[in-house]
Amino acid sequence: MAAALVGCAQQAHRGDPEPSGPMETPPSGPTASQPTAQTTDGDHGWFETNGELTGGFCLTWIAGTAPGQVMQKLGGRRLGTTGWGPDWASFSGRRRGEAVMAVAAMSGWSLVVEDNGILGLRDDLLERLSTRTTVVSHYRNVEQDSRFALVKNGDIQVAFDPYDPGDRTGSHPDMLLAAMRAAGFATDGQGSDDADATELAFALTERLTRVPMTTALLHAATYIVTAVYDADTAAWEQENPDPGLQPAG
């Protein structure tokens, strides 16, 4: 799956117009066991044993926003609907220069899943997604470059590397200290163990969203596969053309 999201598609999905009032509550997604405020990294050991996300991922949660509205904010073009799978990038209909992501409704949130994507590194897109709502994003690549961010109504409130939780930025860098410590992070300048940082970030995500981070939940969801024009992807594909892709239109 293409790694970057830095632009808007020329053809936006128009099925879900932007609301003028409070954000619509999306349809309930799949449910699992009731999430608990006591969750810690020990509850997310499935990450390493499962192996489906260890090559890199970006998981971005948008509160009270339906998947169609998420697509519209990102300028996305709908490719189809499918279940969980590693082959979203090769979904039929992707054009040159487009990044691919999958969007699902998750118990009052929408979840955007990217294979080694960098939506979580693009503050402009996080700010756009967070207009009149809250966004929680967690990114990690195969080299363990990582970022966790909490964004509210266009404001990056907290951002940090789960491997270095003592170094936090944002308008309110300490607002998550209690939740971070409860999830198992050391916030006094000590780095996280390489084996635990991702699981700790999953635990923090669950505390903030109250949606359980489990493989069962991810596998049970229905995903809208979405293509978004990306200038970096377009530049890379210009130098490494794929004859199987249709030109951007």
Task: Describe what you observe in this structure.
There is one protein chain. The longest helix has 13 residues, at about 195-210. About 20% of the residues lie in helices and about 25% in strands. It has helices at about 45-50, 65-75, 125-130, 175-185, 195-210, 215-220, 230-240, and strands at about 55-65, 75-80, 100-105, 110-115, 135-140, 145-150, 155-160, 165-170, 225-230. With about 250 residues, the protein is an alpha+beta fold. A 9-stranded antiparallel sheet has the order 2-9-3-4-1-5-6-7-8, sandwiched between helices. Helix 4 (about 175-185) crosses helix 5. The radius of gyration is 17 Å and the shape is globular. It has one domain (about 40-240). The two termini are about 20 Å apart. The chain is built from 7 helices and 9 strands, in the order H-E-H-E-E-E-H-E-E-E-E-H-H-H-E-H.
Helix content: 10-25%
Mean pLDDT metric: 78
Strand order of the largest sheet: 2-9-3-4-1-5-6-7-8
Structural class: alpha+beta
Shape assignment: globular
If you compute it from the alpha carbons, what radius of gyration comes out, rounded to the nearest whole angstrom? 17 Å
The total count of helices amounts to 7
- Low-pLDDT regions: 1-37
Question: Which series of helices and strands comes N to C?
Answer: HEHEEEHEEEEHHHEH
First CA to last CA: what distance? 20 Å
Total count of domains: 1
Pfam families: DUF6461
Biased composition (Polar residues): 30-40
Region (Disordered): 1-45
